[in-house]
Design a protein that fits this description.
The complex is a heterodimer. Chain A is mainly β. Chain A has strands at 2-6, 9-11, 17-24, 33-38, 44-50, 56-58, 66-71, 76-81, 90-96, 106-110. Chain B contains no helices and 11 strands. In chain B, a hairpin with a 2-residue loop joins strand 7 and strand 8 (70-75). Classes of the chains: A mainly beta, B mainly beta. The A-B interface holds A 34, 36, 43-46, 49, 57-60, 93, 98-100, 102-105 and B 1, 34, 36, 38, 43-46, 49, 55-56, 85, 87, 89, 91, 94-101.
């Protein structure tokens, strides 16, 4: 099992960014997937979950601004981040349902 | 939303010590409780699931327990490789919530 995040970077407040998580080594379409983030020097913060049937749930802090989605044909999980705020600055991790497999994380920095 | 109150925030301990970290849930979460270990610059690692079940590859000196709404992670005899941050997570209902973390460090 391998999960590899990409798409992070420096972005201005109010702008958008799209993160990707490329999955391999398992039947991606059969598993729900999570996004979890960690601000610099802070604890873990659950962000969003998408089920194998594409049902979604979100943390209150990102609801209406972030969108989780998946493309089973490409074995890829996405997180669309809109209306970004400085407090969204964090390492973003994808994790498989059950939390026993995590990616290495991708840094998102929101700053002018 | 379910709140997870984790304590202590910092735990100085010596090698060979028995240490316990606790999370208290603000509502009933049954056994939907996981524990994670995170070392600096690394992704979190699942240690315990279902409150008491050891994840694959986790040493047997780690154990999880539950007493009512209190959940504990215990290391029976601390080793140097156990120095890390530890987090609990409730997955009973969304939004899923982590505890604030415990930094386990050498005394």
């Amino acid at each position: 099992v391998q999960l590899v995040e990409s798409g992070g970077g420096l972005v201005q407040p109010g702008k958008s960014l799209k993160l990707s998580c490329s999955a391999s080594g398992f039947t991606f379409s059969s598993y729900g997937m999570h996004w979890i983030r960690q601000a610099p020097g802070k604890g873990l913060d659950w962000v969003a979950y998408i089920s194998s049937s594409s049902g979604t749930v979100y943390a209150d802090a990102v609801k209406g601004r972030f969108t989780i989605s998946r493309d089973n044909a490409k074995n890829t999980l996405y997180l669309q981040l809109n209306s970004l705020k400085s407090e969204d600055t964090a390492i973003y991790y994808c994790a498989r349902y059950g939390y026993n497999y995590w990616g290495q994380g991708v840094m998102v920095t929101v700053s002018s | 939303d379910i709140q997870m109150t984790q304590s202590p925030s910092s735990l100085p301990a010596s090698l060979g010590d028995r240490v316990t970290i606790t999370c208290r849930a603000s509502q009933d979460i049954g056994n939907y409780l996981r524990w994670f270990q995170q070392k600096p610059g690394k992704s979190p690692r699942l240690m315990i699931y279902g409150a008491t079940n050891l994840a694959a590859g986790v040493p047997s000196r780690f154990s999880g327990s539950r007493s009512g709404s209190d959940y504990s992670l215990t290391i029976s005899s601390l080793e140097s490789e156990d120095m890390a941050d530890y987090y609990c997570l409730q997955s009973k209902e969304s939004p899923f919530t982590f505890g604030s973390g415990t930094k386990l460090e050498i005394k």
